[in-house]
Structure formats: structure tokens, C-alpha cells
Design brief:
Elements: H1 2-5, H2 9-20, E1 65-68, E2 73-76, E3 82-85, E4 93-95, H3 104-108, E5 120-123, E6 128-131, H4 137-145, H5 174-183, H6 191-199, E7 250-252, E8 255-257, E9 265-271, E10 280-281, E11 292-296, E12 312-316, E13 324-325, E14 329-330
Parallel strand pairs: 5-10, 9-13
Antiparallel strand pairs: 1-2, 3-6, 4-5, 6-14, 7-8, 9-11, 11-12
Signal peptide: 1-24
Protein name: Formylglycine-generating enzyme family protein
GO molecular function: formylglycine-generating oxidase activity
């Protein structure tokens, strides 16, 4: 019985030897599940290229310009209704046609001073924005209603205020015009600014060029002026709505200026004085005690000479007449 129940000694010896043999291969381990594996390390982020410096970061533009990010250059940025007028080049432009030389002042009469418009060179070092039109009755009324301006005269036969909203505000003194411009954060133009805007320095007789004016160019008096306050002008006396004579526009790359010739004379900030003969930079004539200011551009009741871009007029600061109005400029 015992011999059938117990293995033989040889069998035990062989079994033990098989388990302990150094040449025996271990039994393979079961594969680990994917959930039990440690996560793969995340890839290291690649180094980002340094940001390019903004083109406009170090660019300083004037208040009437903005920096163009594409080019890094200052470009015009005037408000709506205004036209950007660039500065002149370093050589400037020539002001003065010599109308009053060699007895011309006597022939012109009306208070012209002898030798008052001698040719001389002018340089403007700053751009500016100019109103595209003469200040209208509607714009003036808005300012008056806001109690920021004084109303023009209303009783003259050709007075526009307040009944002709799209006509230029006329019957406006220099003081009232100055107050309006200041209320808009602007100024009256200097005489040099006005002429540079009207001509671009190329010596043209009128804002549109050298073609003789017609009633398509401007509202003015063709032929002999019978009376400054008479039934004159291209439309039988009085002003025209602004932008009525598009053939006479002065066009810049940045916009168009209307009615710089005719319709109404326009106040300048400068006091009236004779031109010097030497070159000047950014002239702004303010003579203490002088109450007479320059007017430019002529009006509906002036001839083709009076509406030339170089023709100088003058009026005392309280002057309020139907043929006199204004426009403003925005300085940087």
C-alpha cells in the first residue's frame, strides 16, 4: 500500500532538480494592462520666436495724423469735413504777386498799401487740416444755440443767417469768426496757410489753375463791378450754397476744398501788414494795436482779379458785410 501512495525517491529527486535547475527558463509573466502603464511624458514645448516689434511703437505723429501699422509712417487723419494740407518742402513757396508795386496800390484803391505784396519765400513746417467749405449758416447756428458763439448780423438784405442753412455764414466780424473756430478747437488760418492750401505753391492764379474763371468756377462778378452791394455775382446778388461751383475746387490727394475763390471773402488770423522781402518760416503776423486783418479769396461781389489766390484784402475786425465769411483750420 505504501509503495503506491508515495512517489519514489528518484522521482522526488528529479522533481526537485527540475525546479532548481539554473538552466530552466522562468515562466512568462502575464502582460500588464494599458491602464497600469505610467503615462508617457509630455513633449517639451518648442521655443516661440520673439515677437516682432510693433512698427508704430516708437513713431510719434501729430494730433492730425495716425501711424499706419503696415508701413510705420504717419498718415493724414483729419476729422470728417476737413482736408489734410501737408507742410511745404524745405524750399517753401513764393507769396506775393507784386500787385501793389510801381503804383499798383493807387490803381487798386480801396486802402491798398504801396509795395505791400512783394514776392518772398515762405516755409511752413507743420501740416494742418482745413475746413472743406466756408462755415455754413447751419454750423454757425448750432454753435449759437449752444451759447458758444455770437450770431451774425441778420438785417442786411443779403444776410444769410439764419434762413439759408446751406449758404456760408456772412455778416460775421473777425471776432465772431475767431470765437466760432475756438469753440470747435480750431483757429482762423494764417494768411500763409490760406494761400498754400489754395495753390500748393505752384503759382496758379486761381485755386483750380490758370483757366479764366466762369460761373461754373465761382460765384463772382463778371465784367465791371457796378457796386459791391449791388445786384452782382453770377446769380444776381448774394451768396451761393457751398459746393455749388465744383469746377473751381482745389483738390489735394487728401480731399477737396470748395469755394476758395468767390462766394465770400474769408477772414485770416493775421493782422494786415506789408510783406517783407526775406524768407520767413511759419509766419503769423500779430501786430499789437492793429485792428485790421487780412481777408482772402474775394466774394460774389468782386471781379476776377479780386478772387485770385494771391490777392490781398483787409478789413477792420468789426466789419460785418454780406460778402465776408470764414473757414477754420485745425493745427497740430
Amino acid at each position: 500500500m505504501a509503495s503506491r501512495l508515495l512517489p519514489s525517491a528518484a522521482a522526488l529527486f528529479l522533481g526537485a532538480a527540475a525546479c532548481s535547475s539554473p538552466d530552466a527558463s522562468p515562466a512568462p509573466s502575464p502582460p500588464a494592462s494599458a491602464a497600469s502603464l505610467p503615462p508617457a511624458p509630455a513633449p517639451l514645448p518648442s521655443a516661440a520666436p520673439p515677437p516682432e516689434p510693433a512698427r508704430c511703437a516708437a513713431v510719434v505723429c501729430t494730433a492730425i495724423e495716425r501711424c499706419d501699422e503696415a508701413t510705420g509712417a504717419c498718415v493724414p487723419h483729419c476729422p470728417a469735413g476737413e482736408v489734410y494740407i501737408p507742410k511745404t518742402g524745405p524750399d517753401g513757396f513764393v507769396m506775393g504777386k507784386g500787385f501793389t508795386l510801381n503804383g499798383g496800390a493807387r490803381r487798386l484803391r480801396k486802402g491798398h498799401q504801396p509795395d505791400s505784396d512783394r514776392p518772398h519765400r515762405v516755409v511752413l513746417t507743420r501740416p494742418f487740416c482745413m475746413d472743406a467749405t466756408e462755415v455754413t449758416v447751419a454750423a454757425m447756428k448750432t454753435c449759437v444755440d449752444a451759447k458758444a458763439c455770437d450770431a451774425p448780423k441778420t438785417l442786411e438784405v443779403w444776410a444769410n443767417y439764419p434762413r439759408r442753412p446751406d449758404h456760408p455764414a456772412n455778416e460775421v466780424s473777425w471776432d465772431k469768426a475767431k470765437k466760432y473756430c475756438k469753440a470747435q478747437g480750431k483757429d482762423l488760418p494764417t494768411e500763409a496757410q490760406w494761400e498754400w492750401a489754395a495753390t500748393g505753391g505752384d503759382g496758379r492764379k486761381w485755386p483750380w489753375g490758370n483757366d479764366e474763371p466762369t460761373c461754373e468756377h465761382a460765384d463772382f462778378t463778371i465784367g465791371v463791378l457796378v457796386s459791391p452791394g449791388g445786384d452782382s455775382g453770377c446769380h444776381g446778388g448774394g451768396t451761393s450754397p457751398v459746393r455749388s461751383h465744383l469746377k473751381g475746387d482745389r483738390t489735394w490727394p487728401t480731399g477737396t476744398l470748395h469755394d476758395l475763390a468767390g462766394n465770400v471773402w474769408e477772414w485770416c488770423d493775421d493782422t494786415y501788414a506789408k510783406y517783407g522781402t526775406g524768407p520767413v518760416t511759419d509766419p503769423h503776423v500779430q501786430k499789437p494795436g492793429v485792428l485790421v486783418h487780412v481777408v482772402r479769396g474775394g466774394g460774389w461781389n468782386r471781379s476776377n482779379l479780386g478772387i485770385q489766390t494771391a490777392f490781398r484784402g483787409a478789413a477792420i475786425h468789426t466789419y460785418e458785410v454780406p460778402g465776408l465769411g470764414f473757414r477754420c483750420v485745425r493745427n497740430p
